[in-house]
Amino acid sequence: MLGVGVRPGGHYAERPVVGFWESDVKTLIRSTILVAALAAGGLAQQAQAALNVMPGVVDTLTNLQINWVWDAAGGGSFYQGVHWNVEMTAVLAADKWTVDVWYTHLDGPHGETREDPHHLTGSFVASTLGTFALTGVDDHQLPSVVHPGAHDWTFNGLGSPGFGASALGVSHPVPEPRSAAMLAAGLAVLGLLGQRRRQRG
Q1: Predicted pLDDT of residue 199
Q2: Do the beta carbons of residue 150 and residue 11 sit within 8 Å?
Q3: Which positions ≥6 away from 177 have C-beta within 8 Å?
Q4: What does pLDDT average to over the chain?
Q5: Taking 80 as the threshold, does the pLDDT of residue 160 lie above it?
């Protein structure tokens, strides 16, 4: 069953999708198997943190890829990285998991400074091994101006009453698609002007 997602407040565009990124699906399947194995061995109940970030976080100037898993208790965790910070929570209530994530880009490829956190929410029915898969675009707040459409993100999750797994991917392309389109248009105009001058000469 496909879940729902919300990006509360701020300027954004959200494009819901039906499928997962292929890499996210593989990661989530591995995460689900790991959590099931932990639960079967009784280790999940003994863990200090009910929500855990998986190894292999991608944290670069332009990209973030982070995956996390949780047991029946849900909970929260925080990842503090070099270029990105991420806070995540998972709460089960009335047969529905609600997964919240706040991501912060600490810098950027165009001289950006630390911005305010972006808040994303996904949810799904737990008893039917529910899922959600969301994509969207966020701005990056520069010191004096807004960098529109700087962040493309995907936010996925799946789970049952006893466990869950989620993944967040954010990219800050260089050059950004809008900037690249404007540059291409500008070069095309210059090319036409140059061609006309040669024809007149």
Answers
A1: 66
A2: no
A3: 149
A4: 75
A5: yes
As a whole number of angstroms, the distance between CA 138 and CA 127 comes to 32
> In the numeric block, which tokens belong to residue 179?
């900037």
> Higher model confidence: residue 90 or residue 9?
90
Q: What is the per-residue pLDDT for 2?
A: 42
pLDDT reading at 66 higher than 90: yes
Residue 26 and residue 137 in contact, taking contact as beta carbons nearer than 8 Å? no
- The three state secondary structure string of the chain is CECEEECCCCCEEECCCCCCCHHHHHHHHHHHHHHHHHHHCCCHHHCCCCEEECCCCEECCCEEEEEEEEECCCEEEEEECCCEEEEEEEEEECCEEEEEEEEEECCCCCCCCCCCCEEEEEEEECCCCEEEEEEEEEEEECCCCEEEEEEEEEEEEEEECCEEEEEEEEECCCCCHHHHHHHHHHHHHHHHHHHHHHHHC
